[in-house]
Amino acid sequence: MSETKPSLRSDNRAPGRFLRNVLLKTLILLIFLSLGFAWLNPIQGMGRISLYNTLYPGRLRLPFGEDFEQSYNLSILQLEAMFSSHEISAGDKPENELRVLLLGDSSIWGFLLSPDQTLSAELNKRDDVTDDNRIIKFYNLGYPTMSVMKDLMLLNFAQRYELDIVVWFVTLESLPLQKQVESPLVQYNPEPALSLIDRFGLGIDSQDTRFVDRTFLDRTLVGQRRELADLIRLQLLGVMWAATGIDHVIPKIYEPLQVELEEDLDFQDYQPGDLNSEELALDVIQAGIHLMEETPVIIVNEPILIATGQNSDLRYNSFYPRWAYDEYREILGAKALESNWSYLDLWDTVPAHMFTDSAIHYSPEGVKLVVDHLSATIRLAAHPLP
Amino acid sequence: MGLVHILVTLFLSIVIALLAKGKWRSWAILVASTLSIFWLQPASPIRHLDFWFPTLSLALAALVWQVVITKDKTRDRENRVTFLTIAGLILALGLTRYIGKGTLLTSTRPPFLGSITLVLILLAGLYFLISRLKTKGLTLASLGAIVILALFVVLKSQPLAEAASRGFRLITGQSVELASAMDLQWLGFSYIAFRLLHVLRDHTLGRLPPLSLREFVCFVLFFPALPAGPIDRVERFQKDLAAPTQLTSESALEAGGRVILGIFKKFVLADGLAYFALSALNASQVHSSTWLWVMLYAYGFRIYLDFSGYTDVAIGSGLLLGVRLPENFNRPYFKPNITTFWNSWHITLAQWFRGYFFNPLTRAMRTARVKLPTWTIILLGQVSTMALIGLWHGIAWNFLLWGLWHGLGLFLHNRWVALQRSQPGWFPQNLMSREALKVLSVAFTFHFVLIGWIPFVIPEVDQILDVFLRLFGA
Predict the structure, then answer these.
(1) A171 occurs within a structural domain
(2) Which of B393, B406, B413, B447 is flagged as catalytic?
(3) Is residue B65 in some structural domain?
(4) What contacts A154, CB < 8 A, 6 or more positions away?
(5) What is the pTM of this model?
(6) Is B423 touching A (CB cutoff 8 A)?
(7) ipTM
(8) How many domains does chain B contain in total?
(9) Which of B246, B249, B298 sits opposite A8 (nearest CB)?
């Protein structure tokens, strides 16, 4: 019996027609796939699929970075994917662990610090244990944008990780109402943000046009191709994270800190005397405390640079004129007292020479100083007095 | 070459396949190839160099053709038309300087039309000078080969390329301090050089078929194979170009399959592996030998998938145009020894060196007055051939080391086979099953090649040694 080679049905057809049919069918398939993707919108769910904490260790801080080829890290705005790559997602919480979450901006994330120099790493190095022999383990959930709304969103998401204590670092720059939606993390996650605004009746405008409203087309496979690529990229970069422990490029030379200051009394859009508690998103902090219910939340006014150069009698640093910052401290202190917050003011803890490239970023030595000041408060929260 | 470049190349191939029939196909290929070398040429910080490099590629092709042709009056008119077409296209590209931003098909704005005209006149002068010298009986093939090799050495050697960059910067009045070897990225020059050298050598040996200028330029600058090969042979290419092929659904399917496979290999697999493939930077950062192995494996697969992916795209696009380019890879990582690996890795390059260097060299040594032992001839032949292949990638110690590693591997394998043949009793026949032996051989060869990639990817000899030692836990 002779074997015959199966021939293509298209043999007799003109190649032009054949190519046209192939292209048409491909196009139709692509359209169906893309529409199906938009309908199912699986991107957040896909973020849960992660090789971190299985094939390679979880990251010590949330993914953030601009130069992924050198930092082996990238900024990704999908909460599920961000948390799945973090060490906090590594299985169930051990019974002998007291889980402390650090929340805040780039100074908590550890800008210009390696992962083992950050506040959480330094606190973990102390190997503190509670009276009932639970290891106090600190998790870095800082993220380099300044908005307490962004922190509240992260805190809301992190609730699933059975937190025991939350230490929330704030500064004036992260509090003005109009700054709350400036963080891309808030803009690109409108659902959780709006849900929190609604739930706690926050003073942030839910109609703010900076919230990114994804249309049906934006949710298609084509529309979300960059998000998908970022999801894959984050997984691939995990190998280099595991192999090198690097997640941030620390340049040898960076823009020097501005210590000679402008003769400028403005703080953002505010003139002296304008700042009051209505202008600050203190309700977001209050919402965070409510959200955590019984879990202690420690509010920390984070250290800032107190410059001594030109015009330092008018300004503390390039961020803050003295009048604005002093009024802010007064407002925050009063609110903490009034609302019975657990509050720690560390604003002048770190000397000027320990700051690196900005008024809120400090060196490893600065981190150690902050840890020294923080330890007692955390210990108190971990071992509540009878 | 990015995805957009590939898709445009593919589109162009489909359009030519569908619309250009008969002799018009090669004319269309000529025009597409001429425009492609300008379009694909990366931008250079040296003013207008990204225009002059493609112009020089065309000029080299035309001049070498002038060196190697035998007068054929019947094709004079066609050759003149080809010549004018190429010159016209260059001038037309020059004219795009005056349209919009002036970067219609070139990475930066082309030079002034006057400069282009002047250069074209100079090149035409050289073209006719070669023609006159030939009529006086002068053989210029060796001189042509020397010029091409000299250009090659300058481009591949960092200090020379830097010096050349300084020279160009002086001419253009740009900062000499910023001179870098990276300024001289001449698209596809390596492959153009190999094709031209092959033609010059075959001309000297009297093996070259008659060629029209159109056929020759199409061969040298065939746009699907321009950036990453493969290196075809002119007589084979000419046959395909002249054949009255018609695109069928079967060939379109085969071509499409190759292109899609190539795109998947390059842009999904290779680019994915690139995130953690070994590099000089990450080799210094990694803190365990296990991860170093992972990165080395990633590099080994990445380089294969990247290169073979491009080859698949080139072969697929070529098929659409009726040109079946030679295969460059044949499952190289599944070969049981280093000799078969080199018969299946960058096949056309290996064949080129075998045909134009290894065979003539070993033949010369065998017939030399001073008789050398066979093993010495093989050692010298293998090591020098592989060293040259290494240096083809760049004139640097690391590439030389890579070449020597493979040269010695080939020599040792050759001697091993010779020993097995001469002393069969020394080798137990039933030590393990044939299959198990094959698996072991494949694994051994793969790891031999893999370790060889260390000097290929890391430029500093100290770091090469360091990585090598760290891989084994030192």
Answers:
(1) yes
(2) B393
(3) yes
(4) A62, A79, A103, A141, A143, A185
(5) 0.88
(6) no
(7) 0.84
(8) 3
(9) B249
